[in-house]
Design a protein that fits this description.
This protein is mainly alpha-helical. The chain has 2 helices and no strands.
Length: about 100
């Protein structure tokens, strides 16, 4: 049994041939042997060259951004608490001053 016999037909029953976009889609779904080999070569190159070179930088940058954003969140919460504490302390001090008068 040949492999091509299991592929869908490239002709349409209504028109007799595929439109350009349909033909391009069919070629994309079922690349020729040379195109498949080229795709495989690119994938191998990506996994052997690009992925090991780029992925560690991506991961470290992501970790740095997350750490920085968490630090910013903690600092903003701390500023909020400190502001509330200062306001409460000033109000308490003003109340003590009025009580002395």
């Amino acid at each position: 049994m040949a492999f091509s016999s299991s592929l869908p037909s490239t002709t349409s029953s209504k028109e007799g041939s595929l439109s350009d976009s349909e033909a391009a889609a069919a070629a994309t779904l079922h690349p020729s042997g040379a195109e498949a080999a080229c795709d495989l070569a690119w994938r191998i190159c990506f996994y052997l060259v690009c992925f090991p070179l780029c992925y560690p930088c991506y991961v470290s940058r992501t970790v740095r951004k997350r750490t920085k954003s968490k630090h910013r969140l903690v600092m903003s919460e701390l500023r909020g608490w400190l502001t509330a504490l200062v306001i409460a302390r000033v109000a308490w001090f003003a109340k003590q001053q009025r009580a002395k008068q």
